[in-house]
Every structure is written in C-alpha cells, then in structure tokens.
Amino acid sequence: ILILLGAFASGQAFDKAAPDKKAGDAFKNIKVLNDDPSTSLEGSMMYFNTSLGVKCEFCHDQQAFDDDKKNSKKTAREMITMNREINKSAFKGRLQVTCYTCHQGHNQPTGSPTIPLPVSAPGITRAPQGTPMPKVDELFAKYETALGGAEKLAAVHSLVLKGSTDADGRSFPTELRLLDGKVYNEVKAPNRLITYVSDGKDAWTKVSAGPPLHEADELAPLLMREGELYPASRMKAAAAGMRVFGTATVGGHEAYVAFQGQQQRTPSNDRLYFDKESGLLLRQAYVVPTLMGPLPTQIDYDDYRNVDGVKVPFKITFSRPMISWTLTLTAVEKNAPVKDTQFEKP
Length: 346
Hints:
Radius of gyration: 21 Å
Number of strands: 13
Shape: globular
Oligomer: single chain
Order of helices and strands: HHHHHEHHEEEEEHEEEEEEE
Helix content: 10-25%
Strand content: 25-35%
Distance between the termini: 20 Å
Number of helices: 8
Largest sheet: 13 strands, antiparallel
C-alpha cells in the first residue's frame, strides 16, 4: 500500500488499470506485456523491484513513465521475453524460473557463490517425526479465548480504528472502518486523501485529487486480511485442512506455525504463527501470485490491548522484501455505525 501511496502522492499512478482492459490498451508504450491484464501490471512492477533490489526510477523517468530513454528499460523488456521463453520451452509454460532466480535482490545477476556464504535467516524448526503437536482447531480455540471468548467476538460486527501509518520516517493519519469482512482504509497524505476499499471480494483505490478509481490484483489479498474483525478470523474455516509443522521465534516469543499441507495448498498458502504461551496470533504470512513470480507478504501483530472485553492488536506491521509499514492505533470503537454503502464500488 505504501508503494501506491507514494505513487499517488507524486502524481504517478496506475490510474488506467481496469479488470476488463489489457495493459497494452490501458497504458502507453507497452511492448512485451501488452496482452496481460492491466490490473496485473503493478504487481509485476513490484516483483521487478523486489527481485533486482531497485526502485521505479531504475527503469523509468518519474516524470514520463512511457519514455524509453533509459537502457535499463529496454534490457528489462529483453529479460521478460527471455524469462517467458525459458518457462515455455523448459517447463511447459509453468512459472518456474523468475527474475529472482538469478538476481537474488541485485540488479546484476548472481552467477557464483559469495565468500563467505550468507547466513540464512532463522525459519521454521520442523517438529521431529512422532513429536506430539496441537491440532489447529485447538490453537484457534485457545486464540479466541485469549482474545476474549467466541461469544464476545461473535458480537463484534464492525470496528472503527484510528491511528497512523508510519514508514520511512513519515507518518500519515489513518482511519479504518471494518464491517464483516469489508474494509475502508482512509490515509491522509500531503494535499490529498487516499482511500483503499474492499467489499470483501474486489479491491480498489480512490484519491481526492487524482483518478476516480484504481484497481490492482495485489491489493485484494492485503485488504481482505486487513478487513478481518480479528486477525486471521477467515482462516478458522480452513483449520481442518491445516496442521502444525513446527515452531518459530517471532518478536522473542516461541510460536507454533500452522499452514495447509501440500495437497490442500492454496495459491496464497497462509502461514499462521500462534504464541505458545498466550495463544495470541503473532504473525500471518502469505504469497501474492503475480505474473512474474510470487510476492511474499508478512503481517505481524503486537501490543494487544483490551477494548470492552475483546483484545485488539494496537501495532500491526506489514512487510514485503523491500518495504514495510506500521499501523499504530490510538483508538478503537466496537460496533460503531458503519454504512454498507461506503464499500460500494464507484
């Protein structure tokens, strides 16, 4: 979302994206992504940035995105063509080789091991075979109890959250209105008001001083999770297809890690991290499929506070490989009057 916020704040946005348009019809000077959906273009650009460790200006003139002055833009087109040809000829069209396969976060491909080899970040410690582990429905039961109990949670139908979105030393006043899986996220950027909206299915952005509507494929999964009345509530229905695979450390707390097995795996493949002691959810992680490769996203929950008998995380940090932003709450109102019409697409 912060990438979008920065784009709108500078006046450079994917404002012509629409689900019924191809990229070549919606934008100027598209050469190799012509037949891709226009709503997929932003996710692809984010994946390029992540894979090469660069920002938009590496290929684009910020004042004229369609300009071809930079050789890096021409090279990018050649690389996209090469990448797709490799997957087509060697993997029957499956997306197996991506930009990240060779670049590993550098603008020059990594062709040989470094000395010393980089130390891998600590991940999930797999439980030894035969080790008794809790069932996922047991973890959800403990989690709901820690939040205040299933009965109190079921009585919450809407939330109004106020606070700030913080990233790169900047802070933007923020208000979220949640209604049974729908979310209206209002961010006050300099000289404009930006709203990110999801009706529980589709997602779009509106700007007070800009294009009337903007849609992007990677927006919907994020807003779907942001619209949950309590974190990962929508995953409770999938608990039967999940199991605990091991443990991990999150913010100094040891957590059980649960996700779906190989047979039931969904494209996003959510991973849930439950605190072994308190039962609270510390993290959920998922993957957004883009046309260029998978874009991982991680959401960390901290500073749970009691609000009229129900615990709410007052600090939520969203992370992707090259960017992170934190929503810090200052006020939470349960069952506030939230109109369903706010979530209607213009």
